[in-house]
Amino acid sequence: xxxxxxxxxxxxxxxxxxxxxxxxxxxxxxxxxxxxxxxxxxxxxxxxxxxxxxxxxxxxxxxxxxxxxxxxxxxxxxxxxxxxxxxxxxxxxxxxxxxxxxxxxxxxxxxxxxxxxxxxxxxxxxxxxxxxxxxxxxxxxxxxxxxxxxxxxxxxxxxxxxxxxxxxxxxxxxxxxxxxxxxxxxxxxxxxxxxxxxxxxxxxxxxxxxxxxxxxxxxxxxxxxxxxxxxxxxxxxxxxxxxxxxxxxxxxxxxxxxxxxxxxxxxxxxxxxxxxxxxxxxxxxxxxxxxxxxxxxxx
Length: 299
Known about the structure:
299 residues, endopeptidase fold (from Nostoc punctiforme), 6-stranded antiparallel β-sheet, alpha+beta
């Protein structure tokens, strides 16, 4: 009996000694090992971590990005300009704003102008900055608002319209250029933002689309293709006899019924067919880059 008890004790001792080694060779609970990839499960959160043999790791179910060195690209810019950021207007445009808020139209944004602007913005529940911004000039229905917005949109997307050359013959660029100088005073022989005459304005605007026009309205009337009054479209040249017989005045159509031209009251948008302009209507011409290239060769 004593000999039997001693044998059991020896066997039990051997079993206890071999148990740690056996446990060390077994995989962790719930784990597998296949082809150099190990997977372990942590019971507390149920998250599974997989470690492939290539050294990379992913953590499914935790919502994080892979840790393989890749990154999610940033969302593209929407190109939407800030409606409340202060904008810089030309002196002529500032004068139009000042007239709308009933202060002296000197083109300078002094204290009185800023105070009046803030009152205007407050009354219409706009952002009160006391400075001109896109939101405010659109609320005022300023004729140059669309051109300003187009320029700001170009800056928001990194394609500033002031530094980007439009495609040759782009009539939208022509119209935008004309709209941007509405309010500029009339100047005989003028062809820049300090003052325009009628043909100086058209030369200036068409140049933005890579089209060179002759300097006088009479010569411009020989360019392009004749257009019936009912078929006038934005970008067409529209002629009037307001300063003598024939095509003595010219403007740029902004629609089938309106034009922008440099009148004696300054650059403005007006009707084609009201009592005054309708009586002086001469005709319209459609201009393309090809037309002016051919004309230049003839000259």
